[in-house]
């Protein structure tokens, strides 16, 4: 420690705005040398001098408290600083950028399990009692009586010991069928303690080094030069299947050989098992995997391994951007366009924004990778914020799959009421006959089965949320997807008493039933929220499909991400336009990304592939450009619309979301806040220059969990000077709102306005 330092600046571990500043404490002589920047301490606080925890963020030679008032640090809580010194400036930056408390930023950087005690967890698991041929015989025998029971056995043959809920969700089997199997003595159900292993698959050893494509080589050379220099921001725009993962791995390898460390961000660990697996098999023990599915204990263990610098590479979802590495050289963001990089809880940070700042502070290289960059990122790349690296070809010069657009209105005219057009039906039959595989996407959002009355048009909604309920076939109930409430199926219309009340639309469950009916011989596996609620379910489904144990993978948008299955020769999009109708300025962008990504799953192997897109809006440009794999075409069109209507990146939107139980009070608060803001803007030339518009609106999701939702949207010109001025204004605004009973949330980077 520098001589003369006797004071420590401490941030108290109490999340309250009035305590959000640095407090000075004396470092007692016996703690000299132990009190370091980033270390956790216990200090007396307040008039009662109760002991609280805090983090040392500064060491000073003078204090802002008179000497007779200043208190002393009581003790040091760790052997080493939990936050590396290089990350300390990130705390005040986050406070500014995301309007959060310093301690909220610090909590992102430290594991929640630092002091928590960890509970054991138990689950009911289903096991086969016997193995081998006898099970096959039983399957054949029981299939004639109950296809559910046969399905359960088939599932257990693939993997023994599956949580009961998952068996039910995957097979759709009622509990009685499972109990029947248990009574026959064929299976058993055991209550077991779950041992949570963060990554339970063997790395596949024996991956032979690849001969790089010319584009890959160029990309890596460019990145290597930047790594040697120690800075640079890059966007790798590579078409689906161009081999971006290989570029990530080799760039990471270069960084490691320069004695630097690497963070690799993926949208969600469970949905990108192949990417994670490739890093794992390349870096072995020197890689740490961080994600939210870890128990506190596991999380803490991984964090400690990272903190003690035992790893070179950290792979994880958005929170991994805070990995406490001391020799950070490279941050890679895979599928950088994904919304999951934005935190939807306090602090509302964006992992790409944090990555930018960390790279600047710590002299590291930033690499954003995607086949479909967000419009804003691509715009920034054109402006020079990122250096663009393009990969236009798939590896081995495999062609991008041809895409056929099917107009579903014509199908109905022709009398086809099935969910499959003639074209997609024939293509599926062909795939099955050849023993190949297919992926079917049903983007269920806004298209789920809702229940409505044919006489009066009444739609059954949740009492708490004012959102249409979704019909679930397996237990014949109606569920609210926002608050989880369950309702019985109404026998008559609650509004008019008519008995012509029925479910409409189609969800993944019904799609699965229909496909099984059309192709009884097909082995279909479904992947959606219902079949993946248990730990490890994603990986099990993807692995089973990857190993060829199923013919068709049917799922929601969660199947669109980065999967690499060479045997998939057909991708079908059952309803491409469902996401076009969301009341959000990004709905075209989201639709284009989704279709392009899922189409990119086809034809990744030597057998080639094709894509069929079913839609009611075949002429929509998002669908047309996606069908041509034309990112730049889509970008050029969409960016002009954004420019014309002053949507981001030509504006910056600040969202103040307000929620409360009394609608009248809430409206009053929203309108009052808007008027107050307007008045403030009038009084300041900078604010006035920067403003595009302010409005108070009811949110598209009007009510969730019995709470009404309103929002004040402030649209400003995107220059830094205005952003800063509006940050100050929001500070004032929040202070003003501090006492109100409604919940208010200010979001500086809203990714959704729903
Ligand atoms: N140089 C190479 N030679 C041969 N095969 C390669 C090479 N590079 C990558 N591959 C293989 O090509 C396939 C596609 O690569 P990868 O999954 O990295 O593509 P991607 O660009 O990430 O695509 P997406 O954006 O669709 O996820 C993988 O099976 C990968 O192992
Ligand atoms: Zn609800
Ligand atoms: Zn009715």
From TrEMBL:
One MF annotation (Gene Ontology) recorded for this entry: zinc ion binding
Example GO biological process: DNA replication, synthesis of primer
Domain Helicase C-terminal: 488-662
EC number: 5.6.2.4
Regions crossing the membrane: none
Domain Helicase ATP-binding: 225-391
Secretion signal span: none
GO CC terms: primosome complex
Pfam families named in the record: DEAD, Helicase_C, PriA_3primeBD, PriA_C, Zn_ribbon_PriA
Cofactor: Zn(2+)
Cofactor note: Binds 2 zinc ions per subunit.
Keywords, sorted A to Z: ATP-binding, DNA replication, DNA-binding, Helicase, Hydrolase, Isomerase, Metal-binding, Nucleotide-binding, Primosome, Zinc
Enzyme type, top EC level: isomerase
Record's catalysed reaction(s): ATP + H2O = ADP + phosphate + H(+); Couples ATP hydrolysis with the unwinding of duplex DNA by translocating in the 3'-5' direction
Residues annotated to bind Zn(2+) 1: 453, 456, 493, 496
Binding site for Zn(2+) 2: 462, 465, 480, 483
Entries under HAMAP family matching the protein: PriA (MF_00983)
Subunit text: Component of the replication restart primosome.
Function statement: Initiates the restart of stalled replication forks, which reloads the replicative helicase on sites other than the origin of replication. Recognizes and binds to abandoned replication forks and remodels them to uncover a helicase loading site. Promotes assembly of the primosome at these replication forks.
Family per record: Belongs to the helicase family. PriA subfamily.
Protein name, as recorded: Replication restart protein PriA
Organism of this sequence: Caldicoprobacter faecalis
